[in-house]
Specification:
Distance between the termini: 13 Å
Number of strands: 4
Strand content: 25-35%
Shape: globular
Radius of gyration: 15 Å
Number of helices: 5
Oligomer: single chain
Helix content: 25-40%
Strand order of the largest sheet: 2-3-1-4
């Protein structure tokens, strides 16, 4: 059982009706702002299978301190400005990963 130190951020966004595809395109077009940050180790855009117009943005970071540094940066403020016109509201949850079973299986060859 290998413990990991990944810091995960999960955003839940409610997108205005009819703007979902435009939101997806804009998110994809600005994703490098997050992905190019050396502390970012992965990011995903997910569409809810149960709630119309709900998206989750997940990103993994090397640690919380470096995520918080990015969160307060001018690059992130500009990134958010491009996404805000599409959402009616959203929430953020931050998580400390305890175990990554996929990584454990990969590293063990199983």
């Amino acid at each position: 059982m290998a413990e990991t130190t990944v810091f995960r951020v999960m955003l839940r966004m409610q997108i205005f009706p009819g703007m979902e595809r435009d939101f997806e395109k804009v998110w994809y077009s600005v994703a490098d702002v997050v992905g190019d940050n050396p502390a970012n180790v992965g990011q995903w855009l997910l569409r809810s299978a149960e709630e119309e117009g709900v998206y989750y943005i997940m990103s993994d970071w090397a640690d919380e301190a470096r995520f918080r540094e990015f969160e307060g940066s001018e690059a992130h403020v500009e990134h958010r400005k491009k996404l805000h016109p599409y959402r009616s509201h959203g929430t953020m949850a931050t998580l400390n990963m305890v175990f990554d079973l996929g990584r454990e299986r990969l590293e063990s060859g199983g």
